[in-house]
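Summarise what follows for lecture notes:
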Amino acid sequence: MHPENKILITGNTGMVGKSLVRQLSGYSLLTPTRHELDLRNQAEVAAYFKQQQPDYVFHLAAIVGGIHANNTYPAKFIYDNTQMHCNVIEAAYQSGVKKLLFPGSACTYPKLASQPIKEQAFLDGLIEPTNLAYAAAKVNGIVMCQSYARQHQFNTIIPMPTNAYGVGDNFNPEASHVIPALMKRFHEAKINKLDEVVLWGSGKPLREFIYVDDLADALVFLMKNHQGHEIINVGSMQEISIAELAQEIAAVVGFTGKINLDVSKPDGAPRKCLDSRRLFEMGWRPKVGLREGLQRMYSEHFGG
């Protein structure tokens, strides 16, 4: 991948996409918005690839959200996401793209997979039901990339990121993941001088997180250095419980009230940590710790 190559970044207005655009400044970037290119429209996507002839593709565009969004909009999650990656992968192959990167998602791994989760666990058990529609679309995209690689020798790479967060995150309560959702709630509780904030679930599930700039850096690293269509995990291997995460966010925000748990609400998977040692052995590691990442995020979005 050289600066003179054309690099298409779909989903470039999202959190990871924006970070990737920043990291690839100086390259010849194609960054169409959803209004300029509807990735759900097969003919439109095919015509765009034929006209622009990108050399490399980061296909990041996706409809995403947390437990609430996954439960509320499963049809949209599976339909839109499947349409988008089917159109992009086929058009990329037909137009002779040198390499396509399609990120999977940790939620495609089995709910009760052995921890930390190795790449070989893919399709080796039942997926967490609250993630099923989104995960099914991702599974389809992963298998599609691998199928095009096997049948057509199309150069695809499939990083499997853990939960990303950071500057540019989605704070919409209808669609946000756990960190921005909690940060917004703690901030509003502080501003409104509330005495408590209630969390969904028991607070016991363990999660790992990766700061958005670290994830974008890993994607660039893999695009430049990795060959092969097998899955490769991208995480921090630093775990924290949801209850402890809430305490960290409350400390960054400056909320000093009580944090109570609503155990009637779903927890999701009990533990989810990716085994990223294969990537680490290639020479890449994350640089931004959780507290630093949370502080950057809060400062950018709330001026804290």
Observations:
- The chain has a mean pLDDT of 94.
